[in-house]
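pls design
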């Protein structure tokens, strides 16, 4: 089977990471896979290992093309769009490029009103299959846009699941709280508020350590906050293992890989009722959910309870690990592969 996958760019992000992992899996099943991305992203961001996709050790080809048409994209059995803008690109291709699949990883209406209309109109393009990454996203697409889709949840690779629960993370009496940092879609990711909230909590708890990770260290990061920049997967798993509480300040997530990854390493995750936490999160059982991600009182109160009640923290941590064991990448990648087989 020949599979084309179209990305708006290959810079490091959770959505691109999942697309790459699926492509690797499809190739392992015997598919002939090519990933396409626009050359203009290289001009915009500069040519480096990040913009070339070299942060991910792939077995498939990545081709950069000046534009997307029937001359630049090869004939195939399946062509997959991975975002609203790429859905328009594959919609213009001929049937020789294969059945058209729209892999919807989030409800991407965080632009201007004009652009948001284009996003929502993309859900009505004539696709052969639409895949959404959570039941929450599927429901949102159906209710708001009368758009049907198949749910294939994102999963975590079995090798990244913590094999056993460790009650003590050996933080020598201190509590370590971690947070993912992203500048892109800053209003949605809510990271500036998140840092302010953590600083306030730290002022009231001298034994609290703050650790962030992200693709690029922000300028003017407040003193006393540690930052792990552009970590490898091995480094990131080690980072999660050091963290007691993982705070996800995002207001909305299509899925939210950090929350799932943190739970898979035994962190107590605090976040909003969206994405993977909407899918399998149970408040105060395997995570802590906040109703208002802009409420300083809610986040400070939640963290304070976890700091003071170690038994509660341990129970949530263990339950989180048990929950995520049912959401492996291998399980859902096989579901994705079977959908493509039926379609082709």
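designed seq:
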């Amino acid at each position: 089977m020949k599979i084309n996958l179209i990305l708006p760019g290959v810079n490091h992000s959770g959505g691109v990471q999942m697309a790459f992992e699926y492509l690797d899996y499809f190739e392992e099943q015997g598919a002939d896979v090519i990933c396409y991305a626009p050359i203009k992203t290289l001009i915009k961001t500069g040519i480096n290992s990040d913009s070339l996709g070299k942060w991910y050790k792939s077995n498939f080809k990545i081709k950069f093309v000046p534009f997307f048409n029937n001359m630049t994209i090869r004939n195939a059995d399946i062509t997959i769009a991975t975002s609203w803008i790429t859905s328009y690109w594959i919609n213009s291709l001929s049937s020789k490029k294969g059945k058209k699949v729209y892999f919807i990883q989030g409800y991407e209406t965080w632009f201007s009103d004009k652009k948001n209309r284009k996003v929502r109109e993309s859900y009505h393009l004539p696709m052969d299959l639409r895949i959404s990454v959570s039941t929450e996203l599927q429901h949102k697409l159906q209710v708001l846009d009368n758009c049907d889709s198949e749910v294939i949840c994102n999963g975590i690779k079995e090798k990244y699941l913590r094999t056993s629960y460790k009650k003590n993370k050996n933080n020598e009496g201190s509590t370590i709280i971690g947070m993912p940092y992203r500048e892109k879609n800053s209003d949605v990711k809510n990271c500036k508020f998140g840092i302010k909230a953590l600083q306030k909590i730290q002022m009231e708890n001298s034994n609290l350590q703050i650790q962030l990770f992200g693709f690029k260290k922000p300028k003017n990061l407040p003193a006393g906050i540690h930052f792990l920049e552009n970590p490898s997967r091995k480094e990131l798993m080690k980072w999660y293992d050091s963290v007691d509480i993982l705070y996800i300040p995002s207001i909305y997530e299509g899925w939210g890989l950090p929350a799932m990854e943190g739970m898979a390493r035994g962190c107590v995750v605090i976040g909003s009722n969206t994405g993977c936490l909407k899918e399998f999160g149970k408040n105060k059982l395997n995570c802590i959910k906040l109703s208002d991600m802009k409420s300083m009182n809610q986040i400070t109160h939640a963290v304070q309870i976890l700091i003071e009640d170690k038994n509660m923290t341990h129970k949530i941590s263990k339950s989180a690990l048990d929950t995520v064991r049912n959401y492996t990448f291998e399980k859902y990648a096989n579901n994705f592969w079977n959908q493509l087989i039926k379609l082709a």
